[in-house]
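TICKET #2291
ISSUE: user wants both folds in one file
ATTACHMENT 1:
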Amino acid sequence: MFKRILLVACVVFLIATCAALAADTKTLTCIGPWSGAEMEAFVPVLQAFEKETGIKVEYRIYRGEDLSAQLPAQFSAKTTPGDVIFMWAWFIAKQGEAGHALDLTGLVKDADYLPGALDSLKVGGKLYGIAYTGKVKPGFWYRKSFFQKHGLTPPTTWEEFVALLDKIAKIPGIKAPIVSGDGVGWPLSDVTEHFIATFGGPQLHKELTAGKIAWTDPVVKGIFEGRLVPLLKAKRFSEPIEWTQALELWWQGDYGLYFMGSWITGMVKDPSDLGVFSLPGARGIVFGADYAFVPKYTKHPEEAKKLIQFLATKGQEVQVTKGGHIATYAKVPLDAYPPVDRGVAELLTGRVALSDMDDTIGGEWQPAFWDQLKLLWVKPDRYVEVLETLEKKAP
């Protein structure tokens, strides 16, 4: 009888203990835009966090466009659908300024990241978000086999770049040296930003993004007039082609070069045949990082901070091993990357990571930028009109 009573007591104690532990276990909700294969590559990061901390994480998928409409109303009601949310940098900064995002100042150090990676998340000297991994827009991609077949080499000067385009243009069967990917206009914006960052420097790119310098400024006009427009007039770029179709045409040899982001490594049949180079002299490269923040209305602020700190540091090493991602955290070792991604990461060494201009400015200006660049690509003589329109549309 005594043994039975003791056994029952032990069982009751164990049940009560497990219930108490279960009640004490907190589950965080992490919201991000990734589904399918991208989600499958991200989930191991959350699993690594759970293993290290014992804190559970539930992942939910929301598009940024939907969140931008929903979150302001929820924040006004002092509620949030998630504890850590991936969102655009400008949106995060705006929420920090409005008092809806937790101050993360001191959680990470600027010195541990690519130069400029955290800049767009700061307001008044305070940090309201973190930069996760992202996609780099490093420059012009080429097939190594294509370059080897035609005796071509990546350029080291502007003159060599122009000469390379001349050589490619003379290859039988080539429709244009560079294929111009197009969607709603964003691939053209990536090329244009690269020219601005290279020939105007990272600071000019930042000042244009911040609205501190006019699009009609002589320095900006000079970059278009002296660098980009002559190439467009000489038909060194193709007319805009839907970007995935452009990828296929370039891969099959209709074009020699393709300016595209690092996600291209996951879209071709043989990534080992990929090579890439930036415009000679580039000191800054646009880095399309994914950003995350902690809403002020989370019920688990300390646990959420642990997750976001993990995403800002150790989690990035887990992510890059899956391929297609480049870390903003400078302490991620190069040997953590697959070979092709390692080459992209090396391009960032010593260069400033710049925020995507049109994504950062956003609003009505973004589609105006895309539309004007489509016009520029087919009517390069109208570049002055294009710049004037961009300045009129600037916020």
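ATTACHMENT 2:
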Amino acid sequence: MNYLFPIKLSDIDKIQKTIILFLISIFLVVFLNPQQVISQAVFPEIRGVWLTKNDTDILIDPSQLQNSLRELADLNFNTIYPVIWNAGYVSYPSQVAESVGIPPLVRSDLHNKDVIGDIVREGHQQGLLVIPWFEFGFMTTPSSELAIKNPRWITNRRDGSKIGDSAAGQVVWLNPFHPQVQQFITDLVLEVITKYPVDGIQFDDHTVLPRDFGYDPYTVALYQQETKKNPPENPQDKGWIKWRADKITDFMVRLNKAVKERKPNAIFSVAPNPYYTAYNLFLQDWNRWVNLGIVDELIIQVYRPDLRTFVKELNLPELQSARQKIPTGIAILTGLRNKPIPITLIEEKVRQARRHRLGVAFFYYETLWENAPSETNDLRKAVVRALFFDPQRRNRI
């Protein structure tokens, strides 16, 4: 009899209590914290990858592009972020760029002359969302036609210096408070979302201004007009930081409105640094942007070299708050040309992101597979395939 019914009668009360406690826990989660459940039910997991200027095979060879996007779809990715604005140049034929003195990029016969169009077309055929990436934001190179032909658009530090260092090398910064700069950026964004059937537009940690900048004549005069005083000598002054951050927020609100008027369902994506760094060092108040409802997708760049500091960033309140409201993910560095990252570390970061109910986007395509001397492409792809074993489709607009 015990073989047919191995549970002792004396254990029935324990089982009943366990079932009751389980049902109570479900009740508490669903009814006392419904947004957490809703956020997981409504938002499919972001599985994205950036296509950068370094991904030259994709950008110049249509057949390579087709094969690469098919493979991404086969590996159950659901989103790609192809670069369209880099170093003062656009990746597509642009009347807006030419109107301010930016010539079309020189192409050889081997170059794909409509790479963005082909990426959108092939990406959609493979079921991928295509969200062009406005990589350089307000940043450009000192030698670009944009900077040379529009010197009044460039801002500076208090000592008058204009050139700064970045991961892309030496750069200058367009003044985000100048109306002509704002109109130029807006026109570029509207041009690309009108020219191509894209699913949205993405801005990252360069749609900002480093806190040392903003002492150009236009900004100084604007600050004097609004506050009746000169800008603080200390660029880290909290009020000065807030004034400039608020101005950038005001612009992003207007930009979002312009995008939505042109394409109401377009995804307005933002990929900033963690909040403390973004706001205090670069005047990017993305937490406020989320609360204002102008961000449709958030991907935080957590490019930490070790797992402990990576996980620490995932618990920050701004990030956990955002994921309750909109699709939210973590940007994971897959390596640089001269600095490969082991697939085991990438895998564990993905697992940690999932434990915190966050999606992922990889920076960037080429280093996701290449430049890892001790690991084969097949090995790295096998790990990704195992991580993304089940499809997670995202609906196109």
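RESOLUTION: both attachments delivered.
EXTRA DETAIL ON ATTACHMENT 2: Confidence is low (pLDDT under 50) at residues 1-12, 24-41.
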